[in-house]
């Protein structure tokens, strides 16, 4: 008996994670240097690991408050205040999720009804649209590729005019896959448009500690009543595997997001929460130290790609380069990605994965060793020269 036709309609039509899927298809190529995943190659700082070991030895292995243990919430709120001037109550305005992937799911599940519309500037992280569609809502894409990959106030005004009942807009900055970000003035110009509409602003700021040209400005300081800020420990503290995300915003919204969270996970792992608490309390400079290395790697990789004929927007944050495929190659980013993996032994992500405006580009992550990046540059130059 086949009961697959009786499952949830949203699950029937759901696509697998395209980033994971593409990575698996090329992962077994012998000698491949992979720049596919957005994961720091640094180890988690020792003081954070020590806090986790201490928590384990103290038997921190039980259920916790679903919002997160109080020290984590207090230290995360203090970190956000000192870094970005965000002002949240640790008792009512923050919840802890099992990674920000869960946080994204919780937020959209909380705010969306079937038929709602969510504005998504692209190229961007594909899990946003996937979660919108899972909740039987509709993504409204804004292709930013003709505007230096930044959402402009005019484009946003036009989109609101065409979709006056949009429920939410999600913005990710510094951006994955482009590696760019917004200045405070650019964010304020967008906020001036958004505040004229009764919409949620979902601000994914997971790369907030990785801005290279000027300090990060959080949307939560510009539109506190409308903004849900998403952040976490993964990128700033090299803790991707610890799975600690945080979601902050108005208390009456966070309480509902936390309710959805408790349906999926009773709580994040106990000892991992204590590790993240230590990170937020005493790791203010951890991300900055990593960023210095990322800046050197960014220059190494981008200079090499430019010499080989790849053009790209100037990355001003995160650890990605979205590079235009040279004209002599197949502009289908999937086909080019396979070709590069098989012939040059370099693994990248096809730009098409990241939505409208992404095809014809490929994403490189420079969260890799200097040795690997140096070899990648050599392999790509040789690959281009042979074609």
**CA-CA gap between termini:** 53 Å
Mean pLDDT: 96
CATH architecture of the largest domain: 3-Layer(aba) Sandwich
Major sheet: arrangement of strands: 2-8-7-6-5-3-4
Weakly predicted, low-confidence segments = none
Report the portion of residues in β strands: 5-15%
C-alpha Rg, in Å? 21 Å
The tally of structural domains comes to 2
Which CATH class of the largest domain?
Alpha Beta
Domain Aminotransferase class I/classII large: 32-380
GO molecular function: transaminase activity
Family: Belongs to the class-I pyridoxal-phosphate-dependent aminotransferase family.
Keywords: Aminotransferase, Pyridoxal phosphate, Transferase
Briefly say what this structure is:
This protein folds into 2 domains: 4-44 and 286-385, Aspartate Aminotransferase, domain 1; 61-282, Aspartate Aminotransferase, domain 2.
Give the helices and strands, then pairings.
Layout: H1 9-12, H2 18-26, E1 33-34, H3 46-57, H4 70-84, E2 94-97, H5 99-111, E3 117-122, H6 127-134, E4 138-143, H7 153-162, E5 168-172, H8 184-194, E6 200-204, E7 227-232, E8 245-248, H9 251-264, H10 270-282, H11 286-307, E9 320-324, H12 333-344, E10 346-347, E11 349-350, E12 361-365, H13 370-385
Overview of the molecule:
41% of the residues lie in helices and 13% in strands. It is α/β, with parallel strands linked by helices and 387 residues long. The protein folds into 2 domains: 4-44 and 286-385, Aspartate Aminotransferase, domain 1 (Alpha-Beta Complex); 61-282, Type I PLP-dependent aspartate aminotransferase-like (Major domain) (Aspartate Aminotransferase, domain 2, 3-Layer(aba) Sandwich), CATH 3.40.640.10. The chain has a 7-stranded mixed sheet, sandwiched between helices. The radius of gyration is 21 Å and the shape is globular. It starts with 8 loop residues before the first helix and ends with a helix. The model has no long low-confidence stretch (mean pLDDT 96).
């Amino acid at each position: 008996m086949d009961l697959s036709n009786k499952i949830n309609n949203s699950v029937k039509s759901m696509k697998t994670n395209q980033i994971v899927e593409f990575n698996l298809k090329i992962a077994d190529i012998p000698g491949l240097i992979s720049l596919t995943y957005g994961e720091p190659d640094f180890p988690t700082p020792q003081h954070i690991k020590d806090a986790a070991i201490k928590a384990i030895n103290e038997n921190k292995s039980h259920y916790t408050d679903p919002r997160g243990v109080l020290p984590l919430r207090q230290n995360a709120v203090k970190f956000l205040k000192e870094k970005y001037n965000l002002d949240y109550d640790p008792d009512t305005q923050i919840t802890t999720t099992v990674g920000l992937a869960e946080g994204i799911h919780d937020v959209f599940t909380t705010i969306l009804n079937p038929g709602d519309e969510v504005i998504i500037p692209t190229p961007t992280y594909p899990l946003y649209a996937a979660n919108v569609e899972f909740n039987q809502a509709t993504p409204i894409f804004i292709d930013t590729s003709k505007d230096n990959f930044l959402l402009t106030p005019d484009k946003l005004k036009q989109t609101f005019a065409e979709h006056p009942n949009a429920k939410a807009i999600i913005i990710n900055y510094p951006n994955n896959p482009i590696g760019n970000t917004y200045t405070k003035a650019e964010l304020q110009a967008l906020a001036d448009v958004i505040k004229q509409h009764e919409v949620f602003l979902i601000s994914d700021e997971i790369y907030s500690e990785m801005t290279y040209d000027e300090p990060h400005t959080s949307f939560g300081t510009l539109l506190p009543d409308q903004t849900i800020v998403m952040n976490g420990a993964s990128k700033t503290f090299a803790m991707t595997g610890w799975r600690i995300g945080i979601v902050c915003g108005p208390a009456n919204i966070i309480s509902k997001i936390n309710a959805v969270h408790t349906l999926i996970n009773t709580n994040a792992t106990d000892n991992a929460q204590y590790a993240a608490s230590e990170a937020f309390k005493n790791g203010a400079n951890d991300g900055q130290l990593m960023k210095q290395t990322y800046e050197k790697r960014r220059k190494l990789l981008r200079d090499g790609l430019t010499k080989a004929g790849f053009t790209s927007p100037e990355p001003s944050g995160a650890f990605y380069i979205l590079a235009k495929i040279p004209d002599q190659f197949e502009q289908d980013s999937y086909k080019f990605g396979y070709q590069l993996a098989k012939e040059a032994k370099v693994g990248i992500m096809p730009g098409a994965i990241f939505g409208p405006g992404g095809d014809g580009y490929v994403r490189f992550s420079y969260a890799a060793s200097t040795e690997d990046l140096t070899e990648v540059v050599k392999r790509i130059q040789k690959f281009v020269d042979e074609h």
